[in-house]
Amino acid sequence: MELLRRVYPLRWAERVSLAMDALPARALEYAGLLRYLRQFYAQGRLSEFWLRFTFGIAVVMIIFALGFAVGGAMWLFRRAFSPR
Asked: How many domains is the chain partitioned into structurally?
């Protein structure tokens, strides 16, 4: 999507890109890291590549956390309702 947004700057491609960035941005905001990323990016101390890389790492962490949460909930459910 990022490549499409850069090659053909269409309005819908920009919207999709912003929607995809919303979840990691919110997670980084809750962690208190987004304001530092904004400052570093505005000062030129952080390139767009590393900003995108940070967002990608945040997405991977969210996916793993959701996986552990669902796995833990399923384990509790099986333990609570399995016959002994």
From this structure: 1
User: Residue 45's domain spans which residues?
Assistant: 2-81
Q: Is 83 left (phi over 0), alpha (psi -120 to 50) or beta?
A: beta
DSSP letters, the chain, are -HHHHHHS--HHHHHHHHHHHHHHHHHHHHTT-HHHHHHHHHHTSS-HHHHHHHHHHHHHHHHHHHHHHHHHHHHHHHHHHS--
**pTM for this one?**
0.73
| 32-80 confidence digits (pLDDT tens) | 999 999 999 999 999 989 998 999 999 999 999 999 999 999 999 999 9
* Nearest-angstrom CA–CA distance, 55 and 46: 13
